[in-house]
Specification:
388 residues; eight-stranded mixed sheet
Length: 388
């Protein structure tokens, strides 16, 4: 973090988010390949006018936070308070030592932050102590309950969004002066109570807050990037040696020989792992699990395939179909085909209908025809965001 940073983004992610459903707070729910919080972090960190991002999380959310941010380089999170206002104040106090000139305070439950809104907020701070994005209310309003009540005029009403921008010393002083026994609806209310002029800039419907399960689905649609189809090809061979069976497609098959290799020599899973890595242009199995590394001696090749699957998922990809062809004279693959399909489907977390297992011979030609070993080739078809 730069000591000369002048503009901080403070993301408040300390809430429990129960109304959105799910087992974890909504800010950690994964949509379009990453957590809501990560979407907000990336949008703010990418803006050239923002020098640093600080996140405030709830007590006990440390593991969720670590999983959400992955390998992003951020300062340690601040542990928030019981209320949102307490969490904001703790965040402001944490960054005060860096003496920022201005700060954008944002709710993690708003994962989409249009760059144009950030531009408007920073420009507005040149002539005001605070600025917020807002949209006019366009729907009819009425008092409610079990029965529809009297209409309420929408003239002059605005939907206030975040991020909200402030001159840092002013908003810090305003929060420090706010009564401890009162809660504020947002930071703009705190600013107004301190006598600050709060400018408004045009907001954006993309900034709508995720509150209910339907909002989560809508955000997923907005964040989804077009997917393109990619295909990867894998091929592997292993020679026979002494033993009483082989691992093939994650299934042990009794045989009068074993396959020799640094790991468990599962030729089918090795070929399939390479096919997936090829589809995402991420090297080959030796790149990720070099045979010179003693950690992989005798290793279960299912670990290799699971790793490749996770890399596809991390890139927002989906595995559509895999097709493996085993080339050997013996053992016979047919009796084990269903077990292999089930095992591979489980490792890839797909339906068995997305896994094809075939076997063939080379009519006794070549090393497989002479019974010296087994070969396998695999094709993997995935869909992945087009920017990858």
């Amino acid at each position: 973090m730069s000591a000369t940073a002048t503009t901080f983004a403070l993301i408040v992610a300390a809430g429990r988010g129960e109304r959105a459903g799910g087992d974890a707070p909504k800010q950690y729910a994964v949509i379009a390949g990453k957590a809501l919080l990560a979407h907000a972090i990336d949008a703010l960190a990418a803006h050239p006018g923002i020098d640093a991002v600080q996140v405030v999380i709830g007590a006990g959310q440390e593991d969720l936070y670590t999983g959400a941010i992955g390998d992003r380089t951020l300062p340690p999170p601040v542990i928030g308070g019981v209320t949102r206002r307490e969490s904001v104040l703790r965040g402001l106090e944490a960054i005060a030592s860096h003496a920022p000139g201005q700060v954008l305070i944002h709710d993690a439950a708003r994962p989409i932050i249009p760059v144009t809104v950030i531009h408007r907020l920073l420009a507005a701070l040149e002539g005001a102590g605070a600025a917020v994005p807002a949209l006019p209310v366009v729907d009819s309003l009425a008092r409610g309950g079990d029965m529809l009540g009297d209409p309420v005029t929408r003239d002059g009403l605005l939907r206030v969004q975040t991020p909200q921008a402030f001159r840092f010393p002013l908003i810090l002083a305003a929060h420090r002066a706010w009564p401890a026994d009162r809660e504020a609806t947002d930071d703009a209310q705190v600013a107004r109570a301190a006598g600050l002029h709060v400018a408004t800039v045009p907001g954006d419907p993309m900034l709508d807050k995720v509150t209910h399960p339907a909002d989560m689905a809508a955000a997923a649609v907005r964040l989804a990037r077009p997917l393109v189809t990619r295909t990867g090809l894998g091929f592997d061979v292993h020679v026979f040696g002494p033993g009483d069976g082989i691992m093939l497609g994650g299934v042990f098959i009794a045989h009068d020989h074993a396959l020799i290799g640094h790991s468990d020599a599962d030729v089918a899973l090795h070929a399939l792992t390479d096919a997936l890595l090829g589809a995402i242009c991420d090297g080959d199995i030796g790149t990720h699990f070099p045979p010179s590394d003693p950690r992989w001696k005798g290793a279960d090749s299912g670990r290799f395939l699971d790793h490749a699957r996770s890399l596809v998922a991390q890139r927002g990809g989906r595995i559509d179909h895999v097709d493996v062809t085993v080339i050997c004279e013996r053992p016979k693959v047919g009796p084990h085909r269903d077990a292999i399909r089930t095992r591979i489907a489980g490792l890839l977390q797909v339906r068995e209908g997305q896994v094809s297992i075939k076997a063939t011979t080379t009519e006794r030609l070549g090393f497989t025809g002479r019974g010296e070993g087994i070969a396998a080739q695999a094709v993997a078809t995935i869909r992945i965001p087009e920017t990858e």
